[in-house]
Amino acid sequence: MGKIILTGDRPTGRLHVGHYVGSLRRRVELQNSGEFEKIYIMIADAQALTDNFDNPEKVRQNIIEVALDYLSCGLDPAKSNLFIQSQISELTELTFFYANLVTVSRLQRNPTVKNEIQMRNFETSIPVGFFTYPISQASDITAFKATTVPVGEDQLPMIEQTREIVRSFNRIYAPVLVEPDALIPTNEACKRLPGIDGQAKMSKSLGNCIYLSDTPEEVKKKVMSMYTDPTHLQVSDPGHLEGNTVFTYLDAFCKPEHFAEFLPD
User: Fold this and answer.
1) Cα–Cα distances in Å, from 217 out to 214, 227, 243?
2) pTM
3) 179: Cβ–Cβ under 8 A, 6 or more apart, which residues?
4) Residues 191-229: pLDDT tens digits?
């Protein structure tokens, strides 16, 4: 069997440059590399409902937005299989069966789940669907026999949980599931691009994003408002690169030849 990729995004809003440097740019490179037999890219609308259950129209409308962002980045339907998660009912069936292979305590120990619960202020009112979405993600990955899953570093615990489910299933029933490997960005700045306000993560809910669909005027306005160095109050004050959002973005987007072109002096 050849190498197979499965990856995707939740349609909770337009995609931003954090998505681009963290995964989209790499997906296009992998798509065009000729290294993979099949590439599946999923719009995970069912997963998006786990914390947007009271606003299904938001998820429905953003399916188109995410699809357009995919195409604008260079993902090619002739080379990659783009699909909507909820249209494949077998994924729900697999989630049901895999749920028997995972304990509540194991889900509670998942660092990604804990962080997401805290970020959404769910506390003790955690929707069951959201709590168990690592199981749903395992279904998505294994259904397509994915060997490779491009993810951000914060998603590594999710891939490990999938690998555990695969090992349990293969041991109990038959060795039919493929144990996937994670593929994370190699550029340190791309592992988690900060928001324009200096927050650790670019997030739609924090309003600190540069969206892929922003106009040039909107991008310029956001770049000019970026959080830089709070200790550099006067021209004579020494500057600091560490924690400076602008320089993090330069590391993520610029190549050495760009500096010679735009900063010749």
Assistant:
1) 8, 18, 26
2) 0.83
3) 163, 166, 167
4) 667 888 877 678 777 788 889 999 999 999 988 888 676
For the four alpha carbons of 78, 79, 85 and 88, in that order, the dihedral sign comes to positive
* Cα 102 to Cα 143: distance, rounded to the nearest angstrom: 17
Environment class of 84 (CB within 10 Å of its CB; exposed 0-12, middle 13-18, buried 19+): middle
Terminal Cα-to-Cα distance of the chain (whole angstroms): 53
Q: pLDDT category, 246, cuts 50, 70, 90?
A: confident
By three-state DSSP, how is residue 84 classified? strand
Tokens matching residue 40 = 């599946």
> In the chain, what are the domains?
4-190 (3.40.50.620), 197-265 (1.10.240.10)
Q: How many helices (H) and strands (E) does the chain have?
A: 13, 5
**Both tokens assigned to 66:** 């995410």
Looking at residue 216, its pLDDT comes to: 92
Handedness of CA 14, 214, 207, 248 (dihedral sign): positive
